[in-house]
Amino acid sequence: MKTSLKWGEIGFRYIFLLLFLYGCATPEERAIKVPVSDSTVSNPVYPGPSEPQLHVVEIKDMKFQPEEISVKKGDTIMWVNRDMVTHCVTEENKKAWTSSNITAGAFWKMVVEINSDYFCAIHQVMKGKIIVE
């Protein structure tokens, strides 16, 4: 019997594997270690305007972790559901944006433009805050 995987299935499996491996690593293993030489210290290189960054908010133990996150305009936040139940992410004041349901092990991401307070519309005690610097 011949089976074939569609590109979407392959992508989903790849992302799931990456998130699984990320969750298995200790914080020390996740840290990026940059070697520093004497020439780097004496002749520092100052970067130009920074590229947009990816920030991760974990949904774990019925909380957004971290609950408050500071980012730059144009950065992306990815919410990863590490809980056993489905959650969502919804802008609190005007409901200007919302994710679809984020099932256990899944994620949702958004490019950030403005400060926002948000919550889980399924579990309304779960709240978070985005601060755009």
What does this structure look like?
The protein is α/β, with parallel strands linked by helices and 133 residues long. It has a single domain (7-132), classed as Immunoglobulin-like (Sandwich), CATH 2.60.40. It has helices spanning 7-24, 27-30, 38-42, and strands spanning 54-60, 63-65, 68-71, 76-81, 90-91, 107-111, 116-119, 127-132. The strands form 2 sheets. It has a 4-stranded mixed β-sheet, with no helix packed on it. It has a 4-stranded mixed β-sheet with strand order 3-8-7-5, with no helix packed on it. β7 (116-119) and β8 form a beta hairpin. The N and C termini lie far apart (56 Å). Residues 28-43 have low confidence and may be disordered.
Going by CATH, the homologous superfamily would be Cupredoxins -  blue copper proteins
- Please, what is the average pLDDT? 81
Range of strand content: 25-35%
Low-confidence residue ranges? 28-43
What Rg is obtained from the alpha carbons, in whole angstroms? 18 Å
How many strands in all? Answer: 8
The CATH class label is Mainly Beta
Question: How many angstroms separate the termini?
Answer: 56 Å
Principal-axes geometry comes out as globular
Question: Which structural class best describes the helix and strand composition?
Answer: alpha/beta
